[in-house]
Prior knowledge:
The termini are far apart. Among the domains are: 2-103, Tetrahydropterin Synthase, Chain A, CATH 3.30.479; 179-209. It is rod-shaped and about 160 Å long. It contains six helices and five strands, in the order E-E-H-H-H-H-E-H-H-E-E. The protein has helices at residues 30-39, 43-60, 64-69, 71-85, 105-174, 176-193; strands at 2-9, 15-26, 91-102, 200-201, 204-205. Mean pLDDT is 80; it is low at 208-220. 62% of the residues lie in helices and 16% in strands.
Amino acid sequence: MAIHPQPVITKDNVEITVDGVLWVRPGFTSEEIQKTFYNIDDWTVAVLQMAMTNLRQEFGSLTLDESLTARERISSNLQDALDTLTRDWGLIVRRVEIRLIDPPDDIKSAMHKEKSAEQERRAMKLMATGRFEAAVQEKLAAIQRAEGEKEAQIMIAEGKARAIELVNEAADKHFVGNAQLLKQLEVTEISLKDNAKIILTKDGIMPTMIIGALPISHKE
C-alpha cells in the first residue's frame, strides 16, 4: 500500500514532503479474520489514514537535519506503532519504508550551498595539509643535505690532517738523518773552498772538527 506524498512539519517548523510504502495483511487465525471482518469496514483506508497521522507525528518530533538522517529509524518506529494499533482489526504490519523526504526549494538551495562550501573547505584543508607536508619534507631534505655536506667536509679535513701527519712521520723517519748529512757536506764544501784544514777520522770527514786555515809556523 502506497502512502502518497504528504506535507509534514518538522520540529524546527520546516515543511517537507514525504511518502512511503506499507506492507500489511490480515491475520490467518479465525479470531484475526473475525476482527478484520467485524471491527473495520475498509481496513485499507483505515490503515493509510493511521499511517499518515503517525507519519506527521514522527516527523514533528524531529528537526529537518534529524529527519534527513533518520530514515530507517522513522520506518522502524512507524512499523511498531501501526502494528500495535491495528491488532484490534486483526491486521499485521510487516514493514514500513519511507522513500521520499523532500525539503522546500529554498532549503535545498541553502543545503546545496552549504554542501558546496563544506566541500570547498575540505579541499582547501587538504591542499593546505599537502603544502605543509611538502614543506616539512623539503625542510628535512635540506637538513639532511646540510648534514651530509658537513660530514663530507669533516671527512675531507680529517683526511688532510691524516695525510699531513703521515708526511711528517715519513719525514721524521727517512729525511732527518739525510738532512744532517747534507748539512755536514755543505760545511765541508765551504771549508775546502777557504783552503781550510780538516780532520779525517775512521768515520769520514767530520766538519765539526774543522780546524780551519791555521797560520804556518817556521818551527814546524
